[in-house]
Amino acid sequence: MNTTPITLINPFNGQLLHYKEGGLEDDTGIFFPLKNGAYRFVNDKNYSDNFGFQWNKFRLTQIDKTANFELSRQRFFVQTAWDKEDLVNKNILEVGSGAGRFTQVLLDHTVATVHSVDYSNAVEANYKNNGPHPRLHLYQASIYEMPFAPSQFDKVFCFGVLQHTPDVKKSVQSLIAMAKPGAEVIVDFYFISGWWTKVHAKYLLRPFTKKMDHQRLYSMIDRNAGWLIKTSRFFSKIGLGSIMNRFIPICDIEGTLPRNLSEKQLHEMVVLDTFDMFSPEYDQPQHIGTVVKWFTENGMKDVWGGFVKYDHFRGAVVKGIKK
């Protein structure tokens, strides 16, 4: 049994796309090039270009097979609860793939066909990590204008991305539109835990840092990571971490990073996650109940929302089946 081919369309006019040497073309002659392993439907300069910078610089940092841990595999299979056998010859849509940490999990641990989309040129990092591969198809495209005819995919997932899109509700609608009837859609996202969620160094400084040149911001974080790590560890050691570390401009070391990292790995992951905090154009955490409501309003059944635990982490997850 082979995977059913996915029908590709020009997302801007709905015309069918055909493979042509070097890319894809519709019947009107509009051409989308294949560049460095990915079909390009947008320019690199957009609201997500910080992620292109980030994932091309930190291409290997979160990839299980190069980082020598299995955090991505754990997160993927725990949050989805998908059985590897259920993914045989299935078309999976991954939206917001970054450097391909979950792309790698699907290619290495299942025999599914993966159609992976990212708005930034992080698709180049994904291709370097995972391509060329007969079951991988990469696209640089917007979540709002994906190059697929609707209702084709057997599974759809979007991890770590929704909060970074301009219109989170519309993003959810776009994901659901791609799923075929009976298909499962799963998302995770930054969640609002209370009024104190945005009483945090990230949200106090982001109005300034998100406007900074990416290289300048990266260099500033890299230079200061050492003493920031020591300061964060000090407050955690004396029992004040949950209060004081909110106001230190560094990622949550205890809550978001793997344990037992080498000092080099810790520094690299702190710089990556701190850059990820301060550089995005959008950072919009959501109430789980709100995302559940959007799923229900957009033709999903058996909708579930809540926290899923893996290792010493927990993620806010919403999932459902398309009617």
Fold blueprint:
Blueprint: E1 17-20, E2 23-26, E3 31-35, E4 38-40, H1 49-57, H2 64-67, H3 71-80, E5 91-95, H4 101-109, E6 113-118, H5 123-130, E7 136-140, E8 153-158, H6 168-178, E9 179-189, H7 201-209, H8 214-237, H9 241-244, H10 253-256, H11 263-278, H12 288-297, E10 300-310, E11 313-322
Parallel strand pairs: 4-7, 5-6, 5-8, 6-7, 8-9
Antiparallel strand pairs: 1-2, 2-3, 3-4, 9-11, 10-11
Helix pairs in contact: 8-11
Overview of this protein structure:
The chain has an eleven-stranded mixed β-sheet with strand order 1-2-3-4-7-6-5-8-9-11-10, with helices on both faces. The chain is globular, with a radius of gyration of 20 Å. It folds into two domains: 17-191 and 285-322, Vaccinia Virus protein VP39 (Rossmann fold, 3-Layer(aba) Sandwich); 195-278, no CATH class. The protein is 37% helix and 22% strand. It has helices at residues 49-57, 64-67, 71-80, 101-109, 123-130, 168-178, 201-209, 214-237, 241-244, 253-256, 263-278, 288-297; strands at 17-20, 23-26, 31-35, 38-40, 91-95, 113-118, 136-140, 153-158, 179-189, 300-310, 313-322. Strand 3 and strand 4 (38-40) form a beta hairpin. It contains twelve helices and eleven strands. The longest helix is centred in the C-terminal third of the chain and has 24 residues, at 214-237. The model has no long low-confidence stretch (mean pLDDT 96).
